[in-house]
Hints:
This protein is an alpha/beta fold. It is 55% helix and 12% strand. It is built from 12 helices and 9 strands. The protein has helices at residues 17-30, 48-58, 73-83, 103-111, 133-149, 165-168, 180-187, 212-231, 236-268, 273-296, 308-336, 341-363, and strands at residues 4-10, 35-41, 62-66, 88-91, 116-120, 127-129, 161-164, 193-197, 199-201. The chain has a 7-stranded mixed beta sheet with strand order 3-2-1-4-7-5-8, sandwiched between helices. Strands 6-9 form a two-stranded parallel sheet. The longest helix is centred in the last third of the chain and has 33 residues, at 236-268. The chain is elongated. The two termini are 36 Å apart. It binds guanosine-5'-triphosphate (GTP) and magnesium ion. Guanosine-5'-triphosphate (GTP) binds next to strand 1, strand 2 and helix 3.
Amino acid sequence: MYDLTVIIPTFNEEANIRNIVLAVDAVCHEHSLLGQILVVDDNSSDATIGIVHELMRTNGNVEILIREKDHGLSQSVADGFCHAKSDVFIVIDADFSHPPALIPRMYEEIRNGHDIVIGSRYMEGGGIRKWPLKRRIISIGATFLGRLLFPDITDPVSGFFAVRKTVVDSAPLKPRGYKILLEVLGKGTWEKDKEIPFEFVDRETGSSKLKTRTIIEYACQVADITLYSFVNHGSAAWREWKRIFKFGIVGLTGIVVNLGILYFLVEFFSLNKDLASPVAIEFSILNNFIWNDLWTFGSYGDRKVSSRWHRLAAFTIVSVGGAVINYAIFLVLTTWFAVYYLAAQLIGILIAFVWNFFINRRLTWIRK
Ligand SMILES: Nc1nc2c(ncn2[C@@H]2O[C@H](COP(=O)(O)OP(=O)(O)OP(=O)(O)O)[C@@H](O)[C@H]2O)c(=O)[nH]1
Ligand SMILES: [Mg+2]
């Protein structure tokens, strides 16, 4: 039985395949890991398959899966999962964009109890070398969308990652396009993840296969995972929906606190209402912060903002920003678009809610 399976998807990689297989093999040897190297090829028309067959004659741990139909990168990786002969799978590109030297570290982190280990280009210490502007923009857009579902993961669309077999074993993966990791995160069964920074290097040899269709497929994939998470409450994205839901409930209690304090101060303390209102607002912000900190984001391990006072300060600033947005939308809709004032206020509340949740998610309650 192998310790791990390194899955290398390929399509016309004759310029790289020998070197990547040998590099992966060497790194496994160096760390005394018994690694199965599984090349999943989409019936390349160049010499890729022949080179792998040649390598198989001298290296018993090298195997190839040649696919004849349903051409695609994600489909190939998913097929690789089914044919792997170990309990830990690591996916790596053939073109040396991903450093094989990180494989032992990823394996180690899985052994340490993580279900998914992601090579991240977007965390501190990571990066992208030699990428044209267009590629960068597309990648940042894709990452942004993916982070809506998985805000704590900096690179949810990385092509370099390790998973425990149990994560994908019974996952109804519907792989399309390029982003198999997002599919695994969305449909797999996992609790603990870890990111490791690495510098992505653009391919030196061979040709790229990225097409515009990829972007459309990606948007469909995000929508599909979102729908999936609504009905499968064990999924990781559902954890995020639950937080949004709790955040909304806390917001409603904030309204009660706000009105209650206002009434109390005006009626029992005869405080001027213009003075009582900001006091009531501050109390509602405090109320919301406490409940969100203890309940909505209570089960949080290593927080980036570790001091509760700092979180309170961040939350207060974001909330004031939300109130300004709410008011600005109210003014614009009522004065310029003649929207009924209650409807205008409601739209303002909803947009401020979206602002409050997503900005706080990135600033106040984010994982280290
Ligand atoms: N099996 C299979 N592998 C593929 C397919 N498309 C790409 N690959 C492989 O997947 C890995 C990543 O593909 P790349 O073309 O390098 O994608 P990229 O890194 O986004 O783009 P470039 O580096 O600019 O080419 C490489 O090992 C490719 O050979 C495919 O349709 N089927
Ligand atoms: Mg590449």
